[in-house]
Design brief:
The chain is mainly α. It has one domain. It contains four helices and two strands.
Length: 120
């Protein structure tokens, strides 16, 4: 995939197609995860975001996501550069991306069905 193709995908609003390509799935993503030993670099305090600094204690966490340090939407020319990619766990990736998954979750107690004493 040429660098210009990444820009075209973003301009067309089809950024997800980049992540479905074989180059990302079979080359870049596994290479970065292997480079970082499948460990979240933010939990280990080896990488930190200026916007979302890590305040948790140092912890070994399994990484499943590869994150673009410089956003792909703003810098498509760096989308495939290894220095721009870092391995993160799902929790850190959501925090860095500004997603708060728990605020949408509503925990409610299930009500027990009423028992009707009436016999048929």
């Amino acid at each position: 995939m040429k660098r210009s193709n990444v820009r075209e995908l973003i301009e067309a609003g089809e950024k997800n197609k980049f992540y479905k390509r074989a180059e990302w799935q079979k080359e870049l993503r596994p290479m970065i995860l292997k480079r970082d030993h499948y460990e979240c670099q933010r939990c280990l305090h080896r990488w930190d975001s200026d916007k979302y600094p890590n305040t948790r204690p140092k912890k070994l966490t399994r990484a499943k996501t590869v994150h673009h340090i410089l956003p792909m939407e703003q810098y498509p020319e760096y989308a495939k550069e290894t220095w721009n990619l870092v391995s993160l766990c799902n929790r850190c990736h959501n925090e860095v991306e500004g997603r708060d998954w728990f605020k949408f979750r509503v925990f409610t107690k299930k009500e027990k069905p009423q028992i009707n004493e009436e016999k048929w």
